[in-house]
Specification:
Largest sheet: 5 strands, antiparallel
Protein name: DUF3108 domain-containing protein
Distance between the termini: 44 Å
Strand content: 35-45%
Keywords: Signal
Order of helices and strands: EEEHEEEEHEEEHEEEEEEE
Number of helices: 3
Structural class: alpha+beta
Number of domains: 2
Mean pLDDT: 85
Shape: globular
Number of strands: 17
Strand order of the largest sheet: 1-2-9-4-7
Radius of gyration: 19 Å
Amino acid sequence: MMRASRQLVAAFAWLPAVAPAVVHAEAPAGEWVSYRDAYRAMVQFEKYGGPKNLLQSQLQVQSRDHAGLGEGAQLTLTGRTTQLNLPLDALGRTVFPLQKAAYDENAALVLNRKGMPFVLRPQVTIAPRADGQYDAADLRTACAQALGFVRYVDASQRARQCAGVRFVFPKKESAGARLRHADGADQPLPVTAGAAFSGDPDEGFPIVTWRFGTSAERAQVITYNAPLAIVPIFE
């Protein structure tokens, strides 16, 4: 099994996803990240006993110098009896496999970018809907679920509140969303460009931000195409 000649210099530590609350780990150039370290961070979402039916948890990979991973990036989980390729989406995320054998062997997570130091971070986002229609009440509930989890792993986040959601779209597709009011009237929502997650480099992803405000109006956010991620905003 692949192993580096020196010890991994950074371990997982909690800091927040949409403000400071995600776990991250750094690998030096040409190094690997311990599967056990990643597992201990990612399993917290599985163990969380609060409501989370509207959420999803994924592992995000970033180059440490924010240079971008480029197309075709993937992680490989490799151990004595384990070999699994983990393709990354446009935001550098993959579904993290929880495997007893890989944990027992302390398998290595290796990026197919020779000499590139990289960072791993758990990212908890709102699960997308196939029909692209999101009830305002469901978005509020999903944001509250995400905030509950963030507070579970980091007590310092208890002062934060849900402020809205950020829809992140692919760069090469037409992006946008509209707000449908209870009376059936549609209101286009502005599209900006920026980073998908707080702390990410600004890679110019099309972004639609919808802030909850104080209105309890029954409304829907309708997306024109599938978002890459729906990120809760805490303030």
